[in-house]
């Protein structure tokens, strides 16, 4: 048996239930992982609420780090005793679990388990956005919403190391300071300031080359107003609600703009894509280009409280659950 945080019916944080589930032996293509740290991400809340539906019941969570305790027949990519992490694989809120081997990433020396669990999903999101969705070039200017969040703190440091001018938004003076300390050249307090107006001031009226927006509904139209003609809005999340675009003509009126809604599933279809992104991320951390901020930890059994804090925008940096 293994202790898990399960969802039997979708709903608010109260839908998370602490239970003991059976743990079988790993089959072909699987490994058993004793988990030492579990990452908290907004996608966990979307799945729990039913916004991103999964078959019920399910174990919550999508990211963790731990140690391989057993492998299935024919498995050679990992062995017992290996330190590994993974992301994008539901079932992470557990003390031990079976995981698909093709999703397991070796943790390099110099990266501890909590750091690995805190950064893989968020860091790979930053990777595909900065290197694939819009490959950021030195001299370009970007806008990153929620710059003090877990993904934001990673991405803004990484973008700055690429030579970009980084503008961020954050909610409240504490988060503004946090974002300024982690890569942003300018940070706008969206609770007190009009971010499109200030972006135009910072760019001398030109607008930014690309906006990375994980907030969604509350920032969508303002994000379009921040772009230069033919710029790109990468809408990669919906923390404030789902974006609806009933009139595509708005993109023409605001400058022949581009909008995309990327997800990691399509950027990491094969194991080699996953390992390429993970290597780039870990190298950036080990080089010092990215300094990891774990803002808060919770015992795994307090996952519901962690969800409430995340959804109420009470967190900065990454949040880690400890089995």
Structure at a glance:
Residues 11-321 form the Enoyl reductase (ER) domain. The chain is α/β, with parallel strands linked by helices and 323 residues long. 30% of the residues lie in helices and 27% in strands.
Query: What is the count of DSSP helices, taking H or I runs of 4+ residues?
Result: 10
CATH architecture of the largest domain: Alpha-Beta Complex
Radius of gyration: 20 Å
Q: Please give the CATH class of the largest domain.
A: Alpha Beta
**Secondary structure category:** alpha/beta
Q: Mean pLDDT, as a whole number?
A: 96
Silhouette: globular
User: What is the CA–CA distance across the termini?
Assistant: 14 Å
Please describe the biggest sheet, giving its number of strands, its sense, and whether it closes into a barrel.
7 strands, mixed
- The CATH topology annotation of the largest domain reads as Quinone Oxidoreductase, Chain A, domain 1
CATH superfamily of the largest domain: Medium-chain alcohol dehydrogenases, catalytic domain
Low-confidence stretches: none
* SSE run: EEEHEEEEEHEHEHEHEHEHEHHEHE
Total count of domains:
2
Let me know the number of strands.
Answer: 16
What oligomeric state best describes the polypeptide chains here? single chain
The percent of residues in helical segments reads: 25-40%
**Beta-strand residue fraction:** 25-35%
